[in-house]
Amino acid sequence: MTLQPDGQGRLRHLLTLDGLPREVLVGLLDRAQAIVDGAGPAPAALDGEAVCTLFFEPSTRTRLSFQRAAQRLGADVLNFDASSSSTTKGESAGDTLRTIEAMGVRGFVVRDGAEGAAAALAEVAAPGTAIINAGDGRSAHPTQGLLDMLSLRQAKGSDFSGLRVLVVGDVRHSRVARSDLHALRTLGAGEIRICGPEALLPAPEEMQGCPFGHDLDEAIEGVDAVMMLRLQRERMEEGLVGSLDAYHRGYGLTAARLRRAAPGAVVLHPGPMNRGVEIDDEVADGPQSLILRQVANGVPVRMAVLETLLLRQ
Amino acid sequence: MTLQPDGQGRLRHLLTLDGLPREVLVGLLDRAQAIVDGAGPAPAALDGEAVCTLFFEPSTRTRLSFQRAAQRLGADVLNFDASSSSTTKGESAGDTLRTIEAMGVRGFVVRDGAEGAAAALAEVAAPGTAIINAGDGRSAHPTQGLLDMLSLRQAKGSDFSGLRVLVVGDVRHSRVARSDLHALRTLGAGEIRICGPEALLPAPEEMQGCPFGHDLDEAIEGVDAVMMLRLQRERMEEGLVGSLDAYHRGYGLTAARLRRAAPGAVVLHPGPMNRGVEIDDEVADGPQSLILRQVANGVPVRMAVLETLLLRQ
Amino acid sequence: MTLQPDGQGRLRHLLTLDGLPREVLVGLLDRAQAIVDGAGPAPAALDGEAVCTLFFEPSTRTRLSFQRAAQRLGADVLNFDASSSSTTKGESAGDTLRTIEAMGVRGFVVRDGAEGAAAALAEVAAPGTAIINAGDGRSAHPTQGLLDMLSLRQAKGSDFSGLRVLVVGDVRHSRVARSDLHALRTLGAGEIRICGPEALLPAPEEMQGCPFGHDLDEAIEGVDAVMMLRLQRERMEEGLVGSLDAYHRGYGLTAARLRRAAPGAVVLHPGPMNRGVEIDDEVADGPQSLILRQVANGVPVRMAVLETLLLRQ
Question: Exposed end of chain A (fewer CB within 10 Å): N or C?
Answer without folding.
Answer: C
